[in-house]
Design brief:
There is one protein chain. By secondary structure, this protein is an alpha+beta fold. It has six helices and twelve strands. It is globular.
Length: 232
């Protein structure tokens, strides 16, 4: 159960990577022992009984999946097509507070587990430098490129620059459409980076300026939507 409401109602959710589904299943009452009882409550392939629900998705990962596995299957192709072919791509994490969005996207604070951002930074520069180890392709000279990073948050219906110096960090930004019909943000800070580590350092610096607040499920829950943009 994810919340007391689910527990009190005798409900829980099971993710099945084999069926690519999330199913509502009954769970025995009993406080801390709920998890062990849930583990014995039938496999993902059993028929749903009356009052239960099962929802199917393109891909479902259960709690045993590592971030590297999820990245390899869902994100790497987006990153490589952007870096190698110039096709814009988006990776979007959505979910309730304390469901693991921040950990999945930015990894652990001590660096022991890489997140989607670190893995994407690695693959962006790997692709630009010609593949594994930065080797040149077909004997041609290495390409010249530049990489810039911006980081913003949408908070209380305002657009804020997380990389702007402290004097202007709290000033909301204006969004407009330029002459070519593209969406532009006036005064947005873009920081040039030349390595995966520099990109991650900029990301961490911006993250320190995000709006956070305590909830019943998370003492540092993000209070905003954050957008990290990598321009090649």
């Amino acid at each position: 159960p994810l919340a007391a409401k689910d527990r009190s109602g005798g409900r829980a959710w099971r993710a099945s990577s084999e069926r690519n589904s999330v199913a509502q299943i009954p769970v025995a009452q009993g406080g801390d022992d709920d998890r062990s009882k849930l583990a014995k409550s039938g496999g993902g392939g059993r028929r749903r009984s009356s009052g239960e629900s099962e929802y199917y998705y393109d891909r479902v990962f259960d709690e045993s999946a590592a971030t590297e596995e999820i990245y390899a299957e869902l994100v790497r192709g987006v990153v490589e097509s952007a870096a190698e072919e110039g096709i814009s791509g988006t990776v979007f994490a959505y979910g309730q507070t304390s469901s693991g969005k921040t950990h999945t996207m930015q990894g652990s604070d001590d660096g022991s587990c890489a997140g989607v951002v670190q893995l994407a930074a690695r693959d962006v520069f790997r692709a630009l430098e010609g593949g594994e180890g930065g080797e040149e392709r077909g004997g041609t000279k290495a390409r010249r490129y530049s990489v810039r990073v911006s980081y913003v948050e949408i908070y209380n219906e305002e657009f804020r620059d997380l990389l702007r110096e402290s004097d202007g960090a709290s000033q909301p930004l204006l969004i407009r459409e330029d002459k070519r019909g593209a969406i532009a943000v006036d005064g947005l800070t873009e920081v040039p980076v030349s390595s995966p580590q520099e990109l991650v350092d900029v990301f961490r610096r911006g993250g320190a300026n995000k709006s956070v607040g305590a909830t019943k499920m998370n003492d540092r829950s993000s209070r905003s939507h954050a957008i990290l943009k990598i321009v090649v």
